[in-house]
Structures are given as C-alpha cells and as structure tokens.
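Entry 14. Ran structure prediction on the chain below.
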Amino acid sequence: MKKIIHIVALVSLLGALIYGWTARENESIRFISEYFDKLQVKKISSDPEGYGVYGREHLKYYLYPEKSIGWGGPMKVAPVVDIDGKIQEIMVLEHRETPAFF
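Output, structure tokens:
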C-alpha cells in the first residue's frame, strides 16, 4: 500500500511540474497576444524562448523574454525588437514589485 501511495505522489508531482511549465508559457503568449491586440503571436524558438508578432502575415516584431531580479523578487521582461533590430520598448510580463514603486 505504501508503494502505491509513493507512486501516486511521484506521478502527481511530475504532473504538477509539467503543468507549471506549460501554464507559464501559455501565460506569456496570452499576455503578449492581449498587448498586441489585433496582431498574431507565434512561438518561434524554445532555446532561447522567442516569439514573433505578425501583422497581415508579415513579421513586425521579435520578443525574447528573460528573467531578471527586481527589488520585490524575480521578474520576466521582454524587449520588443522590430525587424531592423531596433528595440521599440520593454514589456514586463511578470513581476512581484510593490505597485506604488513599480
């Protein structure tokens, strides 16, 4: 009986880990898609994590999210780079900063 409980616990932990990775990636795509309202967002690479933003099937921007450390803890930021390689803005995808200071 103990062996079955250990196996169920291990499978549950692995499932939660996989779900966490998938949910975090989907959250980034959802946030970027909402930000670029009428444009299409596609994942273009996994290592490094990268996204392409398309307008009428033409690539307009690249985004490569990275993690950094802020005062309140980890944050995930993504430079928005146009097709000429110029940074247009920096998007903050996740943060734990105090709202009044952020």
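The helical segments are 2-35. Will compare against last week's run tomorrow.
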